């Protein structure tokens, strides 16, 4: 983890309200793991005061500006414009100064090689699944189930397909792919591949539904939780979730930013899911 003062390399709208930002980030290729995130600050203004958490979509290299210079290392984040902070971010351009704290958090465990892997992503929840897919395709067959309310929420399909990932799209309004919920597709796929491992990220109602399905089919599940957080390092305790075995007399709280954002599903208290992430929605 390090605090990096750097610049924006590009910032493009990829779907209505969704932006993909490339940021100069030397050292991140060696440091970051699939599922980790960064705390992002716009340097040029006092407001917004707090950093914003964003999942790392991709780490890569760009050609050097001239011969005998090293390639430029970067990370990409994808965000949806929903408030003041992301409203400022959409106006950033090449060369604008920004600040990153990261990489942060606990990422995905890729599991056993050569076993079926199913990724389930809803909307901006697709972000941490890309770097995971990059790693998984080296040893496993990977299938991605992408869900959204409308076609505008289905992003980065081409990027996943270029990795060799088998993709399935569903939208609630039927505007793209299969009409219905992504969880309906998951049930079908688990009947075909009962030995699969599932990885999921997205809105909490989707995550809860995925957990119930995986429990029913007795397949392992890892979830990446979206949570509001102020610090990203476990100091503010604004992102705590209830862990397995939590009771009022024996509280077992876990910080999403340090113990997560990726958790094995069995490590969380799903009976209290309605309250533990009730105000989530910011980091991916």
Report what the structure shows.
The protein is α/β, with parallel strands linked by helices and 284 residues long. The chain has a domain at 2-104: Translation factors (Elongation Factor Tu (Ef-tu), domain 3). The chain is 19% helix and 32% strand. It contains 7 helices and 16 strands. It has helices at residues 28-31, 84-89, 127-136, 157-162, 182-192, 204-217, 273-276; strands spanning 2-15, 18-24, 37-42, 52-55, 58-62, 72-80, 97-104, 117-122, 142-148, 166-171, 178-179, 197-201, 221-224, 240-242, 253-255, 262-264. The strands form 3 sheets. A 7-stranded antiparallel beta sheet has the order 4-3-7-1-2-6-5. A 7-stranded mixed beta sheet has the order 11-10-9-8-12-13-16, with helices on both faces. Strands 14-15 form a two-stranded antiparallel sheet. Helix 6 (204-217) links the parallel strand 12 and strand 13 (221-224). Helix 5 (182-192) packs parallel to helix 6. The longest helix has 14 residues, at 204-217. It is globular and about 55 Å long. The two termini are 18 Å apart. Mean pLDDT is 89; it is low at 273-284.
- State Rg: 18 Å
* Total strand segments: 16
Low-confidence stretches: 273-284
Straight-line distance between termini: 18 Å
CATH secondary-structure class of the domain at 2-104: Mainly Beta
CATH fold annotation of the domain at 2-104: Elongation Factor Tu (Ef-tu), domain 3
CATH superfamily of the domain at 2-104: Translation factors
- Please list the strands of the largest sheet in the order they lie side by side: 4-3-7-1-2-6-5
Q: Main beta sheet: strand number and arrangement?
A: 7 strands, antiparallel
Number of helices: 7
Overall 3D form: globular
The CATH architecture of the domain at 2-104 is: Beta Barrel
In round numbers, the mean pLDDT is: 89
Approximately what portion of the residues adopt beta-strand conformation? Answer: 25-35%
Structural class: alpha/beta
The run of helices and strands is: EEHEEEEHEEHEHEEHEHEEEEH
Helix residue percentage? 10-25%
């Amino acid at each position: 983890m390090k605090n990096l003062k750097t610049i924006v390399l590009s910032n493009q709208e990829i779907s209505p309200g969704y932006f993909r930002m490339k940021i100069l980030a030397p050292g991140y290729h060696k440091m970051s793991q699939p599922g980790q995130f960064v705390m992002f600050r716009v340097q040029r203004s006092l407001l917004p005061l707090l950093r914003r958490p964003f999942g790392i979509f991709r780490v890569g290299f760009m050609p050097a500006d001239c011969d005998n210079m090293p390639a430029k290392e970067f990370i990409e984040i994808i965000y949806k414009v929903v408030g003041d902070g992301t409203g400022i971010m959409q106006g950033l351009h090449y060369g604008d100064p920004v600040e990153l704290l990261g990489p942060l958090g606990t990422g995905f465990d890729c599991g056993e090689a050569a076993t079926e892997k199913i990724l389930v992503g809803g909307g901006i929840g697709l972000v941490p699944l890309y770097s995971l897919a990059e790693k998984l395709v080296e040893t496993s067959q990977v299938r991605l189930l992408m869900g959204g309310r409308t076609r505008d929420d289905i992003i980065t399909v081409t990027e996943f397909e270029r990795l060799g990932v088998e993709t399935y799209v569903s939208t609630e309004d039927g505007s793209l792919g299969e009409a219905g919920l992504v969880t309906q597709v998951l049930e079908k796929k688990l009947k075909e591949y009962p030995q699969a491992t599932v990885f999921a990220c997205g809105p909490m109602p989707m995550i809860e539904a995925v957990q119930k399905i995986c429990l029913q089919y007795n397949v392992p599940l890892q979830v990446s939780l979206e949570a509001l957080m102020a610090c990203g390092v476990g100091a503010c305790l604004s992102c705590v979730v209830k862990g397995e075995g939590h009771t009022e007399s024996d509280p077992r709280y876990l910080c999403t930013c340090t113990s997560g954002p990726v958790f094995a599903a069995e490590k969380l208290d799903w009976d209290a899911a309605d309250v533990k992430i009730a105000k989530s929605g910011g980091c991916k």
